[in-house]
Amino acid sequence: MGAAGAGRRTGGTQLTPILSLDALGASLAAAYDGLIAEEVPERLGALLRQIEASEAPGSGATRATRPGHDATAPAAGTACRLALLVGDVPGAGEAGALLARAGLDTVRCRDPQDGLDVLRLHGGEVALVLIGLPTERAGTLDGAGLARAVATLWPTIHLVVAQPPHAAARLPDAHLPPQAVPLDREPDLLAFAEHAAHNPRPPVA
């Protein structure tokens, strides 16, 4: 992306990356978080456009981990092994059991900020993020903001949002990224999670 330290030139012609995808995602997330704190939508829009133009193919969290789980990011072509459940997800226990059946380790995140912190450290391992909406926290990142951050900074991750049952409490679709799949429209969470584990989304939508 042209950032200092993003790579080095070898032999005068070849560009060799020296930052991992997780480190790059963490840097972008930090910038996104700063924009959220400053509440400057114009600058946020400029950042999103810059990221889209530059993309090239390539803590309150608790984790239920299987024995022998490798915490390093998987190599290209291998399955991702983490699923994040963020905020108040209806039927979270059942959802976690289905994700485990799909072969995913479940990381429970108390709120969207915790989810963002986990993504900064392990974004390359995450196959799916399930966010309970609206999940608002005064002065911090909300559920819709986390959904937009996932879609922008980790576009290969499958994104699911669980809206509240009452229509009056639901967030308008316009507040969410287009790749966010409503849980009530994807009733077979097990099949969706199995697909997410082995088929990351394309880097550029």
From TrEMBL:
It comes from the Bacteria. This is Anti-sigma factor NepR domain-containing protein. It comes from Methylobacterium aquaticum.
